Structures are given as C-alpha cells and as structure tokens.
C-alpha cells in the first residue's frame, strides 16, 4: 500500500496531487507542541476534509516535545480532544502516531513515559492497538526498550532512507511493524511502505 504523509508545509492542492501519484492512504500532521503549547497544524482541517472527500484511508501524527510525563499527558489529552472534536471520536484507520524526532524527546528516560502515555490512550480508546511510534531507525535502538516494545506490541513506523530494506524489521521481526518511511523523494515528499495493522 502506497502511503504518504503531509503537514502544513505542503501547499494547497497537495492531497489531489498525491491521489494522482497513486496514494492509497495519507497520514497527516495533527499538531505539535510549540513554545510549550499543544498546537494544531494549520492545514489539518482542510487536508482531512479533502482526504475524507476522496474516500482515502488516513492516519494522524503528533510531533511530541514532551520533557516529562505531565507534558506527555497534556499532549495525549490534546490528541484525544481533537479526535473527539474534529473526527467525531473516530480513531483514524491508519492509526495515531507519536512522532519522536525533536531533541526534547531524545533522552534516556523517554521510554517509560511514552509507553505509559500510549497505554493510557489505548484505555481511553477501548484498548485500541492503533496508537504507535514514528521514529528514525536509530531512535528505536538508542531510546526504546525493544523487548518491552515487542511485548506490548505497540505499532512501529520506522523512518530509514536510502536502504534496500527496513533494517529494524529485518533485525527485530518480533516488533509490530506497520510502516516503513523509505524516502523523502528528494526532500520533497515522504513516502511509506505500509504493511498494515
């Protein structure tokens, strides 16, 4: 399945362009914590309406800046509230993803906080197993307890560009691999191989 991800960095009309390029699903940025405040992506409503109108499956991601458990829960509540408000409380078919890219979430104590935030959201959403982690290959090895990740079967979406395979999947088949972001198409558009839940 050919899946792209987009944010407000993409121009108007981008959803239609992706459909022409063969998109079978789109994961769009719900928001990010900016200056300490959970903030919705400027084009989220526009893009989600276009995706729904095109009858494409979609997912959402949130760029975490959580520096402690209280901030994780603030972000989790924000995501929960926006799903209730803007998506009629319906969890997206392609999941909800914690984007773990910024320096604030690259720290030794991150795993237990992220794990517990995901577990809390799973309980809120009727034991949903579509709340996962998006991160670079190295992030999983450096900051995540892979044995626990496998035990909890938390969905994994790995970013690893210009490799002939998804190395994390090859090295750790016991993980719940859902997607592999394998290219940015010359820094223009992220593209993913979607394995499914």
Helix content range: 25-40%
The count of β-strands is 9
- Note the total helix count: 7
What is the global morphology?
globular
Describe the structure in brief.
With 197 residues, this protein is α/β, with parallel strands linked by helices.
Structure write-up:
The protein is 35% helix and 26% strand. The protein has seven helices and nine strands; from the N terminus they run E-H-E-E-H-E-H-E-H-E-H-H-E-H-E-E. An eight-stranded mixed barrel has the order 1-2-4-5-6-7-8-9, surrounded by five helices. Helix 3 links the parallel strand 4 (58-63) and strand 5. The chain starts with a strand and ends with a strand.
Record the SSE blueprint:
Layout: E1 2-6, H1 14-20, E2 25-34, E3 37-40, H2 44-53, E4 58-63, H3 69-86, E5 96-99, H4 110-124, E6 131-136, H5 137-143, H6 146-152, E7 155-159, H7 167-171, E8 176-183, E9 191-194
Helix pairs in contact: 3-4
For this entry, give a set of tags.
197 residues; alpha/beta; 8-stranded mixed β-barrel; 9 strands; 35% helix
